[in-house]
TrEMBL record, chain A:
The complex is composed of two ATP-binding proteins (BtuD), two transmembrane proteins (BtuC) and a solute-binding protein (BtuF). Gene3D superfamilies: P-loop containing nucleotide triphosphate hydrolases. This is Cobalamin import ATP-binding protein BtuD. Its EC number is 7.6.2.8. GO terms for molecular function: ABC-type vitamin B12 transporter activity; ATP binding; ATP hydrolysis activity. PANTHER family: IRON TRANSPORT SYSTEM ATP-BINDING PROTEIN HI_0361-RELATED, METAL TRANSPORT SYSTEM ATP-BINDING PROTEIN TM_0124-RELATED.
Length: 258, 351
């Protein structure tokens, strides 16, 4: 992990660079001239009201969608052409839904982290070691043979983090990972993410809870179709970017603070 | 020795349906297998169990066919059910019926000798890929569009059959409800070949198929070719449905991809285990169904499906009862505690 960390720190270029990106679904504009850089080792918290284009921006960053205008580069390559899938750990918004009903063990899910490296053929000793280490690191080794659907919400989230760790990813992208997880587990979960970030893993987190973002993230981006703020969490709290972004749609603000 | 001799003989095929499907007689090895391996084995079993029905060659073919269906159905069905697209197997079965009708119609209209099974394969695979293309654009499987394709396929089939002159309606019942009496060496051969093909493809592509089934978005982020594997999945479904159609019937064939899988999902812990348990449930249902169908002279496809649903009902009720009965509850508690201790001892390294 230490060698990986220094490697990450040595590369001065941003890990992700979004340059003047505009995107829409058909005629509906979702993002307008958004530019943002993510430095290696940083922890970006992406906030904004519902439908503000957060998940879309994440998709664009990971190369899962292509912008209508502007460019996105990922690890120095055009994002849509980037093909080293093992460097990306992605926990989608609805990822845990399927996990609830499907008969699949913790270990089987964590093994998927090795699939980009070994889609066919037998796992090597290194593959198996990475899987064990990942289980260990998030503290679910003793749950390895359990069915994922029979775990608590907090434990289930750790399984997905372990999957990203097993692939030895450089980038962890989380889209509202703690929906439906109890408060205590949420605290623990974000403690874990904080620790992983401290070891050099770059994190992008989409989160409703502004408090979580300002506590753990090193950078905050506030989005509502346009980028209202991008910078230090402490500065963010002092500016009125949040009320500007949410102010466009006042009833969403009220709904969120109920 | 036997293989060579049988291959050389090139036995005349009495079933017109499958004959033109393959130019080379690929069924000779199957016939050899039936005559010299499976047949004698069943004869021994017949003596042991005192069931003379196992000695009849047509029953032996029926059992072998049912065993194959009970293998490939759940193997493909497990991926389908857990991607919540079980309905696609039913849809493809109904369009395969249109495929049969297309074959019969073309034969009658242009005096061709196309195998209806071949046209069924073509139509089902093309429909499968079309449905998948539609889904790629729409983003999700919709009940409505599947219902339109399903009924549409069946409607076209029924029109073509009535538009074709001659007594082709005779064979239609067999396609609709399935039949054991018409299980020829060729249909068994197709099923054995499909078992090998489907088994090989699923084994090779197991990891990407599992990833795409479980978490397609993450699979895409991990740069797997998600479209390719989704297409592979529907094509495999088409292959299974069409090859099982003759025995199970168009209307019932989807059950073999769904019911045993649903039963296994209740009890399995891991995905691999769920595939294995689904196969076991299906094999039990297949053997029970074929036997009952012969003994009581009832429909085979229906008997197999009812047997599979019975397995599902037993599994479901035993689980539900297990939660209610305190003794069972305590027992399973102790079991899981024990299980956990075991895991902690060896550091959870068990596969």
């Amino acid at each position: 992990m230490t060698t990986a960390t220094t490697e990450r720190q040595q590369s001065g270029d941003p890990l992700i660079s979004v340059d003047d990106v505009t995107f829409g679904y058909g005629e509906v504009p979702v993002l307008e001239s958004v530019s943002i850089d993510i430095e290696p080792g940083s922890f970006l918290g992406l906030v904004g009201p519902n439908g503000s284009g957060k998940s879309t921006l994440l998709d664009l960053m990971l190369g899962l969608r292509r912008p209508d205008e502007g460019t996105v580069s990922l690890f120095g390559e055009p994002a849509h052409k980037f093909d080293a899938g093992e460097r990306i750990g992605y926990v989608a918004q609805d990822a845990t839904k399927a996990a609830r009903d499907m008969p699949i063990t913790v270990r089987e899910v964590v093994e998927m982290g090795r699939y980009p490296r070994r889609l066919f053929g037998r796992f090597s000793a290194a593959d198996r070691q990475a899987i064990e280490d990942a289980l260990e690191q998030v503290g679910i080794t003793d749950l390895a043979s359990r069915r994922v659907g029979r775990l608590s919400g907090g434990q289930r989230q750790r399984v997905f983090i372990a999957r990203a760790l097993a692939s030895e990813a450089d980038l962890l992208a989380l889209d509202e990972p703690t929906v439906g997880v109890d408060a205590e587990s949420r605290e623990e979960f974000y403690g874990l993410i904080h620790d992983l970030n401290a070891t050099g893993l770059t994190v992008i987190l989409i989160e409703h809870d502004i408090g979580v973002v300002t506590t753990h993230a090193t950078d905050v981006a506030c989005l509502n179709r346009q980028l209202f703020f991008d910078g230090d969490p402490e500065e963010f709290v002092e500016t009125d970017a949040l009320s500007q972004a949410y102010g466009k749609d006042q009833h969403i603000l009220q709904h969120d603070h109920k | 020795m036997f293989t060579l001799r049988r291959l050389g003989e090139s036995v005349p095929l009495d079933n017109v349906i499958a004959t033109p499907l393959f130019a080379v007689n690929v069924f000779a090895p199957i016939e050899w297998f039936l005559n010299y391996v499976f047949g004698p084995g069943m004869d021994v079993l017949a003596d042991l169990l005192g069931m003379p029905m196992l000695e009849y060659p047509y029953m032996q073919r029926a059992y072998l066919a049912a065993l194959c269906i009970a293998l490939i159905g759940p193997v493909v069905g497990t991926f389908l059910v857990h991607r919540e697209m079980a309905m696609i197997s039913d849809t493809l079965a109904h369009t395969a019926f249109a495929g049969v009708a297309v074959g019969l119609f073309l034969n009658s209209a242009f005096s061709l000798t196309l195998s209806p099974l071949l046209t069924a394969f073509v139509v089902a695979i093309v429909t499968a890929l079309l449905v998948e293309l539609l889904v790629e654009h729409a983003g999700a499987y919709s009940d409505t569009s599947l219902a339109i394709v399903l009924t549409g396929g069946f409607a076209v089939g029924s029109i073509l059959i009535t538009a074709t002159d001659g007594g082709i309606a005779v064979g239609i019942d067999a396609y609709l409800f399935g039949s054991l009496a018409t299980v020829s060496t060729e249909s068994v051969g197709i099923l054995v070949l499909m078992s090998v093909l489907v088994g090989t493809l699923v084994t090779l592509a197991y990891r990407p198929l599992l990833y795409v089934t479980f978490d397609a978005t993450a699979a895409r982020a991990a740069r797997l070719n998600v479209r390719l594997y989704k297409r592979l999945m529907v094509v495999l479904t088409a292959l299974v449905v069409v090859s099982a159609m003759q025995i199970m019937g168009v209307i019932l064939v989807a059950a073999m991809l769904v019911v045993p899988v649903a039963a296994a999902a209740q009890v399995a812990e891991s995905f691999k285990q769920s595939i294995l348990l689904a196969i076991l449930a299906a094999e039990f249902a297949a053997i029970a169904g074929v036997t009952l169908s012969f003994v009581y002279g009832i429909a085979a496809g229906g008997s197999i499906v009812v047997a599979a649903i019975a397995v599902y009902a037993v599994v479901l009720s035993s689980r539900k009862l297990g939660y209610r009965l305190p003794i069972v509850q305590r027992f399973s508690d102790r079991q899981s505690k024990h299980h956990r201790k075991e895991l902690e001892v060896d550091g959870g390294k068990r596969e």
